[in-house]
Amino acid sequence: MIPATMKRTSLSAILLLAAAMPAYAHVGTGATSSFTAGFMHPLSGLDHVTAMIAVGLWAALKGGRAVLAWPLAFVGVMLAGGGLGMLHVPVPFVEPAILASVVALGLLVALAVDLPVSAGVAIIGLFALFHGHAHGVEVVENAAGLGYMAGFAFATALLHAVGITAGLGLGMRFRGFARAAGAACAAVGVGLVFGVL
């Protein structure tokens, strides 16, 4: 069993490390003018896929209201962040925060961190703001851009559902597999931070 102070210290160190390393993984990439483009974009980015599945896994490990609240919080705040990006409202540290989200969400699953639902909403919402903003700045400023964001939100929700289904499907007997998947997500995040992936 890892002591709570060690968990907090490790998480803080990884977040600081990720914040220091820009990824520039989103700005100006791909078509942003249709529902289909929006739907496909999250599926093509390793950072988004792993973070979204981690949200679903963490929600499944927590159970109860978190199974719906955490994914809904992510999608809702992501859309708000996308709106800020579309309006060109500056948000600092977007790319480092996205990388930090992959590592942090993976660690939350790997360590089976049990937080109140409201605290999980706050953490997930914070990361969602950055994910949404990164994609909002890419969107064309017309109705096609709104279609793109709708497709993006739908694909994000599906990735959450994959994580939830996997987490619930493994159940309490196989909780270790869900935690191992979280560790894999965190490892992907570290690989992205150092440019290995």
Secondary structure class reads mainly alpha
Enumerate the spans where pLDDT stays under 50 for 5 or more consecutive residues. 9-29
**How big is the Rg?**
16 Å
Number of strands: 0
The general outline is globular
Q: In percent terms, what proportion of residues is strand?
A: under 5%
Structure, briefly:
The chain has 197 residues and is mostly helical.
Give an overview in words.
With 197 residues, this protein is mostly helical. The chain has helices spanning 4-19, 35-43, 46-62, 66-86, 94-110, 117-136, 143-170, 175-193.
What would the keywords be for this entry?
197 residues, mainly alpha
Topology record:
Blueprint: H1 4-19, H2 35-43, H3 46-62, H4 66-86, H5 94-110, H6 117-136, H7 143-170, H8 175-193
Helix pairs in contact: 1-5, 2-7, 3-4, 3-5, 3-7, 3-8, 4-6, 4-7, 5-6, 5-8
